[in-house]
Structure formats: structure tokens, C-alpha cells
Amino acid sequence: MTLPETTARLERGLRGELSALAVLDHTTRVLLDAVPADIWCGVVLDPSTLLDTGGQHESGFPESSMRRLFEIEHVEQDDVDNLRALTRRPGKVSLLSRSTHGRLDDSKYYREILQPLGLTDELRILLRDGRRTWGLLVLCRDAHTRPFSSEDLAVAEALSVPACAALRRSLLLSGVDSGPLPDAPGWVVLDGDLGVRSMSPTAHHWIEQLQERHAPGRAEAAPYLLRALAVQARGEPAGAGAHVRAPTSAGRWISLRAWPVDQGGEPTTVVSVGPTDPADLTALVLDVYGLSPRARQIAQHLLLGRSTSEIALHLGVSAYTVQDHLKQIFDKVGVRSRRELVAELFFRHYLPQLADPPLSTDGRLLSPESRTDR
């Protein structure tokens, strides 16, 4: 099958309203037909923290490798193809053997993760839109499979474009509340081995909504997201903690915050799990729509009910500049007017997250600095 035919097959399967897992399933199925691998996984990322917020792990790395993998990836962050390093480079694909110029043993990740599993190379494919990285596909090969070729990398890079667009669309669906969920946060306590020591009923409810799938028969363990977050929190300065946002299968966004504590000399991590704060959600949703930083600022001012002249004065730009950005915002979000834009952002994404919407007496959203309940 030619590359245009493969791309067309991928695009056909990504039409419609798909969940993030469905996007990853179809993408990896098409990709693996063209670029086979011995171990692979696909993950959804929080673009702000680059933490795994869900994904398909059935054919991925074994449980025994995960803790060290999290430490290398999220705490030490010094390996050549570390995810954070990749997002600072141009391009969407990276092959470990090329990044190390053929000296794989120079890579700690290779020595401690890949080599013990008999794997000889790893291809990482970023699902990114230029500014933000929304997902990651990882393909590994062992010594019995031919090395990755330049053609493999070209196919992977081409397929990453429609895959990223579909993944972003799927995250927009996470603004639609499809059922009643508790609005209070819950708590999870992880022990020194990243096992669950205790979990509140509310936290259990939220954790069950994570879009994370593993191989059948996998031993009961904390989700990868919780463990990666705990490892990162333990590597942060005292009191800093770690934070990530994740879409749920029930159509909500949740936020998880982790803090390491010392209980009788044993390292313990406390994780709060609850609905994403609306102010935090807005920035994420506008990112998902692919708006520029300036366009996001203008959209947020619109949600506060400000006029074109008020926005221009606040941002120190001309009214014509604001109007130009508004046209771009309307095109990106798929609306034709301010009213439709507010309806799309507020009723589709904001309102489902709010038990008590922060509105002023005239019905406008209150800005964070004017709210007295915080």
C-alpha cells in the first residue's frame, strides 16, 4: 500500500466523534501494518506537563520496567530522546539509534529499559500541532526484526498529522458531560513502592474513569498516570508537588495533584483527584482548538463579556487587531458570532464542570481576581 493510500485509510477511520482511545487504536492499527513493531504503546499527554493521562498499554513495556522508566522520563529528564527534549526539537519523529549516532549504549534509557528486554531500537512519534504535544506513539523492535528505515520514519511522520488532529478533536468531546459524577475531590495514598495504600470512594470513582487500558490478566496496580505523577512529585523541590489534567471516559476533565510526605520514615505520596477547575480548563480547551496565545487571551476576555474596544484597551492593541483575531477564532472553533463562540465554550466545556457557575449579576463570567470564594 502506498503512503497516500495508507494516509487515506487512516483518515477514513478517524472521521466522526471518537474517544481518545479509539483514535489511538485505529492509528496504531494502520501504523503497525506499515511499520511493524515488537513492542508498542500509544498514550495521551497533558500538553502542559507531558505526563501520560491515558492510553493503550496492552502491548507495551512490562510492569517491572515502569517505575524506572518513569524516573528516567519524568524526574531525571537527561536522556537523549527524553520526551521533553523531543518537544523542543523540530519534527515529529525520533529514532533512538540516530539520536545517539549509533552509540546506543550512551543512552541510559537504552541500557536500563530497552536492552534488558532484548529491544534494539525505539521510534517515538509525537502527536503535535507545532506548539503543543497531545500524544505519543512508541514503537520498539528487537534483534529478530529488521531495523527501522528512513521510509518507516517518513510514514510515521505523515500519519502523525491526521492522528494529532483526531486526538485533539477527541479531547474536545471531553467537555460534554455524559452522566452524573461527584464534584468533590478524593484522595489516594501511594506507598514507597507506588502501590495503593488507601483510596477514598470518590477518588476510586474518578480513577475508574481514566482512559487507560492494559493487557488482560495484569496484576492489580495503580494506574500509570498515578505512578508517573508520584515519581515526578518525589523529584520536585520540597512542597512543589506535581499536577496533571486528564480526560475521562465519562466526558469530564479531572485534575490530579501529588505531594510526597514522610510517614514514619517511609516515602509516601498523597494524590488529590477531582474535577478540573474551570479557569484551568479554559486554557486547556482553547489550546485544544489550536488557538494562538494572543487568540486565547482574546477568547478569555470574550468569556468575561468584554467588548472589542475593552479588549483592545486591556491588551494594548488596536480594535482592528482584535477583530482580525476574532475572525481566526471563529474559524478555528467553527462558529460565526460572539454569541455562538460563548455558547460553544461555555455550555459545551465550562458549564458541565460547574456546580455553582461564577456569574456576575448580569450573567457574565466573573474574572478570577473578582471572585470572593477563593
Main features:
DNA-binding; GAF; six-stranded mixed β-sheet; 42% helix; LuxR C-terminal-related transcriptional regulator; transcription; five-stranded antiparallel β-sheet; alpha+beta; disordered C terminus; 374 residues; globular
Describe the SSE topology.
Layout: H1 3-13, H2 20-34, E1 39-45, E2 52-56, H3 63-76, H4 83-87, E3 93-95, H5 96-99, H6 108-114, E4 119-128, E5 133-142, H7 150-172, E6 186-190, E7 196-199, H8 201-207, E8 211-213, H9 224-235, E9 242-247, E10 253-263, E11 266-275, H10 278-288, H11 293-303, H12 308-315, H13 319-333, H14 338-350
Parallel strand pairs: 2-8
Antiparallel strand pairs: 1-2, 1-5, 3-4, 4-5, 6-7, 6-11, 9-10, 10-11
What does this structure look like?
The structure is a single chain. This protein is α+β, with helices and mostly antiparallel strands. The chain has 14 helices and eleven strands. It has helices at 3-13, 20-34, 63-76, 83-87, 96-99, 108-114, 150-172, 201-207, 224-235, 278-288, 293-303, 308-315, 319-333, 338-350, and strands spanning 39-45, 52-56, 93-95, 119-128, 133-142, 186-190, 196-199, 211-213, 242-247, 253-263, 266-275. The strands form two sheets. It has a six-stranded mixed sheet with strand order 3-4-5-1-2-8, sandwiched between helices. A five-stranded antiparallel sheet has the order 7-6-11-10-9. Strand 6 (186-190) and strand 7 form a beta hairpin. Helix 1 packs antiparallel against helix 2 and helix 11 (293-303) crosses helix 13 (319-333). It comes from Streptomyces sp. R35. GO terms for molecular function: DNA binding. Pfam families: GAF (PF01590), GerE (PF00196).
